[in-house]
Amino acid sequence: MRNGRQWPVECIADEQSFRAERWGDGTGMGVERDGEQRGPGMTPDGSVAPAAFVEREPPPALGDRVPHVEAIWLPRDGWVIAGLSRRGLSHAHEGRFREDAMDARATNGWQLAAVADGAGAYPLARVGANRAVRAAVTAMEATVTAADPGSSEDAGAEARAALLAGLRAAYDDTRAEAARRGVPAADLRTTLLLLVHRALPGGVQLFAGAQIGDGAVVVRDAAGALHRLGAPDTGATGNESLFLTDVEPAAWPGRVRALRLAGVPCYALALTDGVADDFAPAEEHLARLERPLVGAVLAAREGEAVTRGLAELLAYERAGSFDDRTLVCIYEMGSGPWT
Hints:
alpha+beta; Phosphatase 2c, domain 1; 2 domains; six-stranded antiparallel sheet; five-stranded antiparallel sheet; 7 helices; about 25% helix; about 25% strand; globular
């Protein structure tokens, strides 16, 4: 980052297929990927012209305003939900709002989180993303608050019910908001990734997730194994995402995944594609982000320090990485890999 500490995040896995050309103030607003130059600063002959990054504010008259950076710090019952969402370079350069969103609650022994990435091509994407995460987390909270699971099996059923309730609430809310505004539901298109956790008797940890769209929902255990709680959607052509209102409710149960881990430190992450794509495939490269995240940033025990560390960590520079970045982690205080 330009002000403060730069965390040593290794982002580029293959220098031959990902080669950066930096210029101007060093922000890398144009990149060469697989031999093809993309981004601002192109000249007619294909050479790179100098181009400086300029951070701009959205027009004052633009409604549905959201902050450029948002943080979560929610400790309870020895576990913590920590997260940060920040506006990407492209939106900052173009004077647009952040279109990622996140929300979280901790209640009745559960940790509940949601992240979303509004589809940038649609005018109310940030509205859809924000409404989706809030509606989903509120519905999940209501589901688990009404229950008192007496066994591991009950908790698993409750996690599944909470995730399905979250998907339903987000789906209904975004469609209702579109109808209220008199616009197509597509104007509020957004991805949605849900994550829940409960500590069970005997040192068993229950994690469950659901995913519609790109990004990643994963659990890492102390043995180094990465467990996915969702699969990214890439659409019919393989190069675009699906969104919440694209998937019929009948398909939602097949998107719910659960995992139990016994007796090992572990944590879970929900990431929008602005982070996940920089470390894909996650099984090979996500640990490069996790080591400074868990070993340094989350090792702090105060919310202000963790939030500051997350902001610095997610300011890593990678050529070609311009999108909003959102990361939410559910972890046990003082316990985990790389600590």
